[in-house]
Amino acid sequence: MLNSINMKEIAMLAGVSASTVSRVLNKNGRYSAETEARVLEIIRKYDYTPNMSAKGLRTSRNSFVGIIVPDITNSHFASLVLELEKAMFEEGYSCMICNTNENALLEDRHVKALMAQNARGIFITGTHIYEKTKNIPFIYLDRRPRGYHGNIFMIESDNTMGGYLATKELLDMGCKHPAILSAPNVDYNQRARFEGFKKAIRERGMTRGDYDIIDAEDTLMSTSEKAVMDAISDGVRFDGLMCTTDTMSAGANVGLRKCGISVPDDVLLTGYDDSPIAEVVGSGITSVRQNLSAMVNTAVSIFLSMLEEKAPEQMLYSIPVTLVKRDSTQKRSMK
Fold it and tell me: How far, CA to CA in Å, does 309 sit from each of 129, 131, 135?
């Protein structure tokens, strides 16, 4: 039965003091490898789980962290949360997952609630910078908050390079008049990916008349579908479309099909995030893959360093991205 044994009994069976058992559980050192092995073997044998709630009351420190994301139904954020939750569990922490639904007020409430519950740290993909955080690790992931000033710990993908790679793929595969579908008012990532789009365009010697811009209100599939259909109805013509998220590329694919336009026969298509949706839409959408494992490992490393009051090496970490090719950018000469 879970916790059928207590710490004093473990100490008695191991022939050590209760304080030594506590040090082994908390990895605080001052014990031999032989003692650690003996204590851990008894813990495993009796399936002992420490009472972390009681520990939190004694130390004013809890063993959980907060993870705040804008949309847990988005497969990209769901994957990010899953990776982070697994990594923190391995470090002995549970996670309280908070969804903001892209609502700044709800985000603020989540931050205040986590602070009030003495969370050991907060990982956030959010909109605002929070200055007063009781000196706990506060780490920003995936997208820069508004007013970003470089004095916060920020881990992001190289979004400009990602936009560049996705656009270069369209041009390399024969596109003569590309377009970009983005939601520029949503977050910094959208704008950074647009900069990558323009960089690839400039390298080919193209000017503003050689490409089109399709703006969407947000990154939802339905909004993207409508934006593409409205653009086509207004006379916008393109032979390649770079979308700044995979959900947008999925919506764009539906909109193109409803307008009688085939991917990739008439229009080549790229997405961003390399989420599961990119594999199942049509015969697969070429997409930019973000290295979530590297992002999470960096975030956890910063968290642990801050707990030990060690200064991380830098404030901003840009994680490299790669392009995953699928049939949506099949080379025209091969058809």
Answer: 21, 18, 10
- Its sign, for the CA torsion 79, 85, 86, 91, is positive
Note the pLDDT tens digit of each residue in 5-51.
Answer: 788 888 899 999 887 887 887 776 678 888 989 988 988 888 777 65
Please compute the mean of the pLDDT values over residues 144-170 and round it to a whole number: 94
3-class secondary structure for the chain?
CCCCCCHHHHHHHHCCCHHHHHHHHHCCCCCCHHHHHHHHHHHHHCCCCCCHHHHHHHHCCCCEEEEEECCCCCHHHHHHHHHHHHHHHHCCCEEEEEECCCCHHHHHHHHHHHHHCCCCCEEECCCCCCCCCCCCCEEEECCCCCCCCCCCEEEEECHHHHHHHHHHHHHHCCCCCEEEEECCCCCHHHHHHHHHHHHHHHHCCCCHHHCEEEECCCCCHHHHHHHHHHHHHCCCCCCEEEECCHHHHHHHHHHHHHCCCCCCCCCEEEEEECCHHHHHCCCCCEEEEECHHHHHHHHHHHHHHHHCCCCCCCCEEEECEEEECCHHHCCHHHC
* pLDDT tens for each residue of 288-302: 999 999 999 999 999
The domains found in the chain, sorted by start residue, are: 7-50 (no CATH), 64-158+291-321 (3.40.50.2300), 159-289+323-334 (3.40.50.2300)
Q: Is the pTM of this model over 0.85?
A: no
